[in-house]
Amino acid sequence: MSGNALRITAILLFVGAILIGLYGLRASQPAPELSAPAPVAAIRYTHVVASTDLKAGHVLQASDLELQESETPQNLAYSATNDLIGRSLDSDISKGSILLPNHFPQRGAAAQLLKSGERGVALKVDEVIGVGGFIQPGDHVDVLLYISTSNGVSVDSSAQSIIKDVRVISYGENLQQVNSLQQANAEISKGPLAPGAASVPSVNPTVGAGGGHSAVLAVREEDVAKLMLAASGGTLRLSLRGAHTEQDRGSDLIHLSDIAQGKPATVAGPVSQATGQARGPAR
User: Fold this and answer.
1) Pick the residue with more confidence: 134 or 199?
2) Residue 127 falls within a domain, yes or no?
3) I need a surface site. Which of 190, 211, 232, 252 has the fewest CB within 10 A?
4) Residue 49 is part of which domain span?
5) How far apart are CA 40 and CA 216, in angstroms?
6) Between the ranges 181-190, 214-223, 247-256, where is the mean pLDDT highest?
7) Is 17 exposed, middle or buried (0-12, 13-18, 19+ CB in 10 A)?
8) Domain-located, residue 6
C-alpha cells in the first residue's frame, strides 16, 4: 500500500473515531423532561337555585334563593336573585333545584308591563281623543272627563281631570318596550327578565300616528271603577304629559258657565261629584 493511501485511511479512521465519540457523549446525557401542559380552567355558569323546599303560591324572598355554579350551561336559568324576589311560584320546587320560567305563572306581554297595584284598562280612542294619534306606548297622560247636564230648564257642561299621570302600555297595535326591556331580549340568553320568559315585543313600525283604535292604560287599582263610571257618564279625552315631572293640583273641575263668567277652575273631589250631575244624556 502506498504512503498516500495509508495517510487517507488514517484520516478517515481519525474522523470516524471523533464522530463515534461525539455520538457516545450525546447519548450519555439524560433526555430533557417534557413539561406538562397547563390545565385549562373549566367554564363555570351561575344559576339561581332554591335554598329550601318551596310550595306553589309561595312569594320568593331573598332567603329562599342562592347562587350555584355549574359546568353545564342552562340557557333558561336565572343568573341573579333580584330577578325573582317578590314573584309567586306556580309549582312546588325542591331544595337545590334550578329555578326556571315554567316555575312561575305565564303572563302575556302586556301583563308583564303592569306593576304591582296596577290594572290595564282599554279606552276607545280616535285621532282627537288620542292627541292626534301621537301618543306612544310608554307615554304618560291625564284622563279628562266632559259631561253635559240638563235639569229640564237649562243645560250646563263641565270638565275635569279625573286621573293624573297614568302610563300608556299600548296604543293601537303598538306595545310598550320594557325599560329598554332591549336589555330584556339580551338577558334571555343568561336568564329571562323577571316577568316571565317571553321575549318582549318591539314597537310595530307599520302603525303610525292615528293608526290605533284603542289605548290601554296602566291604572291604579283604586281608579279602575272611577274610570269605568266616567266613561259611561261622559266623554273622555287624553291629555299628553311632557317629559318633565309636574306638580299636580288635584282634580280641576270647571263649568261652561264659569268660563262665561271668568271664574277660575275649582279643585274638586272624586269624580263622583262630577258624574253626580249627569242626569241628562251625554253628548
Assistant:
1) 134
2) yes
3) 232
4) 45-103
5) 54
6) 214-223
7) exposed
8) no
